[in-house]
Structures are given as structure tokens and as C-alpha cells.
Design goal:
The protein has 254 residues and is mainly alpha-helical. The chain has 10 helices and no strands.
Length: 254
């Protein structure tokens, strides 16, 4: 599909206009992708898109379909369609090329640091803008192509870009849902793990109010022994931290 050539300068991906084509699905895809990327700016999106495009282009040159390398594939398609420097990308689609080969690259070493879902959200916006550009006639087509053929080509390209944008958005959304699920699960396990400690902390603070203490070490030792009698074993440092966080002071108990 179309390489990235600073498309975001032609159409701001954060200001996708509402248009009737495809019953509003293209702007809806754009709105969801841009919503996910709130807090980022166009310059950041452009840097990410350029990095993705460079990677995808390298993968398209290595692509091997049906046992034939890219040169053989280009020769076959050139005879039946037309010669294009991005013929393998046209055949595969950028999102498919990226999905099949993204694991081959160490993204942590990329100049622009991104999460996996962010890369797919940027890919989605990139393809949304490509769809708009195709609808507006920004096509790499022969100058003598008949008007009817050009119109068909325009809609075909726009539809292809819309499908790619939707595929990329779905992967981004699934990735985000998994991240949120892991975060909620981690919090639940953490709460469950610390719940007993919080209960004993409350007991310890009540014990600290039981009698006057000359010093914090004296209170800590008393609390530690009382908790041990109840079957709870806590280090003196833990009890000390509980008292400090509760702003407990011995002099106030004299």
C-alpha cells in the first residue's frame, strides 16, 4: 500500500473531518485511533510513522510469496498489472506485512519509544489519511487512464486503506484491553496479598493506644510481642513504618 510520505501534513490526523463516504466509518476509525493517542502530537505521530514505514519497506523487499521472491513477483505482476516500486506492499498490505514481521525488530532500541498498541494506532491513522487522500484523487495512476477506471481505482484504494485502518485499530484496542486487564488483575492480587497486613496494621495501631510508652522502640517491642501471641509475626521495622505513617508519637502518650 502507500508508503508514508508525510501524509499528516496534508491532513491532521487529530482533525479527521466528517464525510459521508462509507457511511462515516472512515472518520469513526480515525476518531477512535486519535482518542487512544491523546496526549501525543502530530510531530510524534510523524516520527513513528516514518519508523514504521522504513521497517515495512524493508520487509516488503524480503517478502516471498508462493516460493518466488519479490523480483519474480514484480515481474509477474508487471506483465498483468503495472510496474510499481511498492508492488509487494500493494500485494500484501502494510498492516499485514507489519503484523507478520514486527517481532523481528527490537522496538525498545528504536529512536522513538512506543508501546505496541501505539504503533498500531499510528498505523491506523496513517491508513485513515491514505483513504481520504484516495477519495480526493491522490493516486499513483497512469495519466491516460479512463475516467471510469480512475473512479473505480479511487474507491478500491480508499476501501483497501479503510480495511487496513480498521485492522490496525482492532489490534491496538485488543492490546490496550489486555494491558488494562493485566493492570486490574495485578491490583486485585496486590490488594488481596496486602489485605491481611492491613488488618494487622490496624491491630498494631490500636495496641499503640493501649498504654503510655516512653519511646517508639518500647511501643514497637510491646506491639511485636502482642501480635506474636495472636499468631502474627512482623518485623520491628514493619511495625515502625506503620507507626510513622500513622504519625504516632510516644511523647503524646505520657
Amino acid at each position: 500500500m502507500a508508503a508514508f510520505k508525510d501524509q499528516f501534513k496534508i491532513l491532521d490526523p487529530f482533525k479527521i473531518p466528517r464525510r459521508p463516504e462509507f457511511f462515516g466509518w472512515i472518520p469513526q476509525i480515525g476518531a477512535e485511533a486519535s482518542r487512544a493517542l491523546r496526549g501525543r502530537d502530530v510531530n510524534w505521530l510523524t516520527d513513528v510513522a516514518r519508523s514504521l514505514d522504513s521497517f515495512i519497506e524493508k520487509q516488503s523487499l524480503r517478502a516471498d510469496l508462493g516460493g518466488g521472491g519479490p523480483k519474480q513477483l514484480q515481474a509477474i505482476l508487471a506483465r498483468e498489472l503495472m510496474s510499481s516500486p511498492y508492488v509487494t506492499r500493494d500485494w500484501y498490505g502494510d498492516v499485514q506485512l507489519f503484523t507478520e514481521s514486527e517481532s523481528q525488530h527490537n522496538w525498545a532500541n528504536d529512536p522513538v519509544k512506543t508501546e505496541r498498541w501505539e504503533r498500531y494506532a499510528v498505523l491506523s491513522l496513517w491508513k485513515v489519511v491514505d483513504a481520504y487522500m484516495a477519495l480526493d484523487g491522490h493516486l499513483d495512476a497512469p495519466p491516460d487512464l479512463a475516467r471510469s477506471a480512475l473512479e473505480a481505482m479511487r474507491w478500491n484504494h480508499a476501501g483497501g486503506y479503510a480495511v487496513e485502518a480498521m485492522n490496525a485499530l482492532q489490534i491496538a484496542q485488543i492490546e490496550l484491553l489486555e494491558i488494562r486487564h493485566r493492570s486490574k488483575r495485578g491490583k486485585h492480587l496486590s490488594d488481596k496479598r496486602h489485605a491481611p497486613s492491613r488488618g494487622w496494621r490496624d491491630v498494631a495501631l490500636r495496641l499503640a493506644e493501649d498504654r503510655p510508652f516512653r519511646s517508639m522502640p518500647q511501643a514497637i517491642e510491646y506491639i511485636r510481642l502482642e501480635l506474636t501471641k495472636q499468631g502474627a509475626f512482623f518485623a520491628s521495622l514493619t511495625i515502625r513504618n506503620w507507626l510513622i505513617r500513622a504519625k504516632w508519637k510516644a511523647q503524646h502518650r505520657r
